[in-house]
Amino acid sequence: MKIEKTLINTLLLLIFFSCQKENITSPESPLHEPIYFNSFESAMDTIGWQGYGSYNFFADAPPVGGTQSLNIFGGCIMPHAFVIFQNKSSSQYVKLHCWGKQIGIGGYVSLSKLNSLSQSIFCNITDTIWTYYESADSIYCSANDTLCLYFMGGGGRVKGAILIDMIEVKGFK
Known about the structure:
Elements: H1 2-16, E1 19-22, E2 33-38, E3 54-58, E4 69-74, E5 81-86, E6 92-103, E7 107-113, E8 116-125, E9 131-135, E10 139-141, E11 146-153, E12 160-172
Antiparallel strand pairs: 1-9, 2-12, 3-4, 4-12, 5-11, 6-9, 6-10, 6-12, 7-8, 7-11
């Protein structure tokens, strides 16, 4: 039990300090190549999603978003939601970008290569207003690598929720 608490606390600290955030606009860079993007404007945007929590569309969006976002919430069993996709671009480093807003205690979004959680990048959703987040780190993805976006609302045993919109995985050479 003590080891489990230590591991959970270490993971939460890692997540908390691994994301940069800005409050105004999302920067655009011509060097970044989009690999995945979702703005959650229709039910089609979550086809193929899985998870152990719940998610639904919510009529609240960031200033640069559409009319709604995705509300993700759950309890002990994680991930609350996830989606698997392939890097159909060339080999490159990738970063995770999104707009987020916490409800309750917040949560996080992570990106990793499938079956390689040791190579993960995170955005910890901590603000109660819409905030643009960018992962502080990047991971290297070869062409055709399978990637997974994981979404967690809350901190495992503590229920929480996050709103996510304009999520994007961008590559750069």
